[in-house]
Specification:
The protein is an all-alpha fold and 115 residues long. It has 4 helices and no strands. It has a domain of 45 residues.
Length: 115
């Protein structure tokens, strides 16, 4: 019993160096990160607003705008999981189809089986 107690008293982790808490934070520079994040956000917002204004000014029959709209619609169609507002995808009017009518060959094959 004494040997078991002796094994329990041996520390499993040995401290090599005692941790020292520094007085001054050295990294990351939080003020710089906040400043750069704010500048980046304002720049993105300004680019978005000016781009939207230019998009709205462009004639709807302009070949570049028609091409861009076609590309966006194709990309949106290939990403059905990405809905417009972030919620789960819903069926739109053009995706809803009428119930399928039974095929003629199915009816005949059922009729032949019953004989």
């Amino acid at each position: 019993m004494a040997k078991v107690q002796e094994v329990k008293e041996i520390p499993t982790v040995k401290v090599l160096d005692v941790a020292q808490i520094s007085d001054k934070r050295s990294f990351p520079p939080r003020l710089l990160i906040m400043f750069l994040g704010t500048v980046f956000s304002v720049a993105v917002a300004a680019a978005w607003i000016s781009g939207k204004a230019m998009w709205d000014k462009t004639d709807s029959n302009d070949a570049r705008k028609v091409f861009a709209q076609e590309v966006f619609q194709t990309a949106k169609a290939s990403l059905p999981w990405a809905s417009k507002n972030g919620s789960r995808p819903h069926l739109t009017a053009d995706q809803v189809s009428e119930p399928l009518a039974p095929r003629e060959d199915t009816e005949t094959s059922l009729h032949l089986r019953s004989k």
